[in-house]
Amino acid sequence: MSLPVTVADVEAAAARIAGYVVRTPALAAASLSETTGARVTLKLETRQRTSSFKDRGAANRLLQLTANERERGVIAMSAGNHAQAVAYQAARLGIRATIVMPENTPFTKVRRTQHFGARIVLAGEGLAEAGDRAREIAAEQSLTVIHPYDDARIIAGQGTAGLELLHDVPDLDVLLVPIGGGGLISGIAVAAKHQKPALEIVGVQTELYPTYFRIKSGLVPFHGGQTIAEGIAVKSIGEIPLAIVSELVDDVVLVSEQSIERAVHLLIEEEKLVAEGAGAAPLAALLDDPARFAGCSVGLIVGGGNIDTGLLANVIARVRLREGRVVKMRVEINDKPGVLAEVARLIGECGANILDVTHQRLFYDVPSKDAELDITVETRSPADIDEIRAKLHAAQYLTSILETTAKPNL
């Protein structure tokens, strides 16, 4: 079958954009390998100037504009990463860029896009609505639309990440790649399957935006909801990517919001790597089904690192609470001097960190000479909860767990 993008297109893109993008590292992830039982390699597209693989496609597309198109300027629709990439590469080439972004785009992505010199227009609830507005402005101002994924030149540019990865790690058995509009996975599939036809390519989508998963299953696509992986929260896969993905991608899996949050947290904790939700989605798929990939050489495309710091802090807190590493407990005490200090000392001896203490002595159901301490502690592992409670019980303090997903034995 003749595909709309060939390996020759990807190789030409690699030569064309060599001076405009970073040749990102392929990192052997020892800790993740131990955790999952696979030999894990991370392709760190977070190291691009705009912290995303989108630099590749944007550079390849803009470098092929005609002189007249460059003079008129370009416009793009994007939830963030494509926006930054087009703005950055356009600024380097002296091209005026207008970016239409959904109204709910994280502020950090809006700010960074403005930093690269683009004019920002906020419109619509999602990428489809932003795209409608971008096409209206393009027609009004004679601008060239730079589509985020449904463009053969964009796809060829994204595929250069696959060329690099297979060059660096030729023994890969499986490649896990996020799917939004399909530009990244289709370009990588063209490059990777040419170099290694037996390579298994697995796409990863969120449960809230399972467009290709449902198409592949013969079901009507649906979508919706707030997702941490807004970079792949796309309502429809592009026509050009769909033709390629249908031919070259072996499977597609869905991951939940909790799985993505866990993957974001694990990349920080184990690999000291900040990834956005879409960038962490391939790791989420690996963590969800490690038996499937055990013993295999697995490549994960970490597509981007543009996550709002407030959201990141929230994710860390949620995962730690979910894993039982942040616990809120109630301790019944005799209300006299020195007791609070003793409780704190006993908790500290278990290696836990007290985050918050509320001293309750006026509740109607608490005896007048007693009080209750509501204490939030951060532990090293869920097992520490049992140790803390055992130590407190041994000192004659009754305790109960108020908030945690862990299940202590006491």
Protein model, in words:
The strands form 3 sheets. The protein has a 6-stranded mixed sheet, with helices on both faces. A 4-stranded parallel sheet has the order 5-4-3-6, with helices on both faces. The protein has a 4-stranded antiparallel sheet with strand order 12-13-11-14. Helix 5 links the parallel strand 3 and strand 4 (97-101). The protein has helices at 7-17, 30-36, 54-62, 67-72, 81-93, 107-115, 127-141, 152-168, 183-195, 211-216, 239-248, 257-271, 277-288, 290-293, 309-322, 339-349, 383-394; strands spanning 26-28, 39-44, 74-77, 97-101, 119-122, 144-145, 174-178, 200-206, 251-255, 297-302, 326-334, 353-360, 370-378, 398-403. The chain folds into 3 domains: 7-52 and 152-319, 3-Layer(aba) Sandwich (Rossmann fold), CATH 3.40.50; 54-145, Rossmann fold (3-Layer(aba) Sandwich); 324-403, ACT domain (Alpha-Beta Plaits). The protein is elongated, with a radius of gyration of 25 Å. Residues 364-368 and 406-410 have low confidence and may be disordered. It has 17 helices and 14 strands. The chain is α/β, with parallel strands linked by helices. The termini are far apart.
